[in-house]
Amino acid sequence: MRPSVGAVPGCEGRERTDRRADRQTGGGPDRRGSAGSWEKAGQRHDRPYTAAGRAREPRPYALAFPGSWTRPGHLGAGGAQERDRAGERLHHHHRWGLLGNIIGSGIFISPKGVLEHSGSVGLALFVWVLGGGVTALGSLCYAELGVAIPKSGGDYAYVTEIFGGLAGFLLLWSAVLIMYPTSLAVISMTFSNYVLQPVFPNCIPPATASRVLSMACLMLLTWVNSSSVRWATRIQDIFTGGKLLALALIIGVGFVQFFQGHFEELRPTNAFTFWMTPSVGHLALAFLQGSFAFSGWNFLNYVTEELVDPRKNLPRAIFISIPLVTFVYTFTNVAYFTAMSPQELLSSNAVAVTFGEKLLGYFAWVMPVSVALSTFGGINGYLFTSSRLCFSGAREGHLPSLLAMIHVRRCTPIPALLVCCGATAVIMLVGDTYTLINYVSFINYLCYGVTILGLLVLRWRRPALHRPIKVNLLIPVAYLVFWAFLLVFSFISEPMVCGVGVIIILTGVPIFFLGVFWRSKPKCVHRLTESMTRWGQELCFVVYPQGSLEEEENGPMGQPSPMPITDKPLKTQ
């Protein structure tokens, strides 16, 4: 595929979209300018430059959804993912990719929070099993949505299709401002704790040292992602092995301990001995802590259009991956209790390090190194993904246009990366790890519940819609009942944390109407935004990507595009 004249080599984008949209719609008199307003065709304005030195005019946001390249494994702004030579879609990779996407750094963070709010070993293990069951229910509901609305983009695509543009924007807004930055902050702080704990073996590492190391790691990986997509993806591939090594070691040693008779804490008489009586609110918070480790279960819905026969393979991926993840998480916690008492686990700032020190002897250093490698890769993955989400949201007109630009030589979305890094750094300063987990898990479940509520709304509004997968109504109803319980009692237990999250989401309402819905903005607003965009371009040395008509059809970087040029009607039965 040949890039157009003046395009940055390897940074093919989407310059001719508007001309094609005009041909399809009859070439209306109005076009959307770079500042988000509608202007008469033929008028000239100073606009931010594209790679070819011309103004880029994005299409209206309602025509498209952020696509699957905003998720891990889909490079989007920085370069094309290598295609299958035969042009076949990914099959077994996605079935097992769900497993790898769920299992992450959360299992090294959440056990302490789950145990703290559960009040006993037995109830903590029950919370982990229940978390797997609720995740399976949610996954089945998402499977029906994934084949009924066959658009990549996951929650954002479904909420926008069912509830409209405002609801979709609020979901994007919460992801950019809350979900990704908070998750990044939690994983960064976990990285610093596991690195520093061996240095401070008899006490908790100083908070200042932990935050400084967290920010240093975050800034280093921001620089790596800004410098080269290849470096970022190689880091992800290399450091993924860290979590697998750590979990295999923990579970293996745990089984040895169990068969040697070291399971006093797991005997029923001890396991259900409560050192505190947990309230319903405590149980809700325990589940929020555990649910952080299950994040990523909706990964396949972001790549629905790349799946071969999703009617068969979505349920298969769910029935294979979710039970395996639940098994791994439950037995990781069982292994912890073969070596530590509940009090020792609660007093530990890095549970896996304490486990290694008690059982691995000379090789105890393997555990903090493995977990540090895992969390380092997790930071890189979240940073990579969140920047692509900002990039796609900006390209569709939902976020400032500067975030849709890439470096002229490196082809990386530097403005989006800087925004993600800055938001994460701010969040690191305002809360501890376990408060932040409650914060992000509450917002995650709020979004999951709204999406699954959309399944019931779609059943009511469009009963004749073609649904290759149709779950029993008891499944979404059961999920929503649990969802309502979780949100209500979490709000009662942590009103400040949950309330701040809701307020931040609601701030997106005026932003949507002022920045997206209001099209006839005064010229002074255009001049201000365009001057700020130009300043950002000069600072970051970035431009809009540009490419050919064929590349628009195949996605911005030569990938199959999940974003239709016009909204296609959904199939009916």
UniProtKB/TrEMBL annotation:
GO terms for molecular function: L-amino acid transmembrane transporter activity; neutral L-amino acid transmembrane transporter activity. InterPro entries: AA/rel_permease1, AminoAcid_Transporter. Residues 1-56, 551-573 are annotated as: Disordered. It is a multi-pass membrane protein. It is found in: Cell membrane. The keyword Ribosomal protein does not apply. GO terms for biological process: D-alanine transmembrane transport; D-serine transmembrane transport. It comes from the Eukaryota. It holds the Pfam family AA_permease_2. The chain crosses the membrane at residues 121-145, 166-192, 212-232, 244-263, 283-304, 316-339, 359-385, 411-430, 436-459, 471-493, 499-518. One of its GO terms (cellular component) is plasma membrane. Keywords: Amino-acid transport, Cell membrane, Disulfide bond, Membrane, Transmembrane, Transmembrane helix, Transport. Gene3D superfamilies: Amino acid/polyamine transporter I (1.20.1740.10). Residues 12-33, 41-56 have a biased composition (Basic and acidic residues). This is Asc-type amino acid transporter 1. It comes from Myodes glareolus (Bank vole).
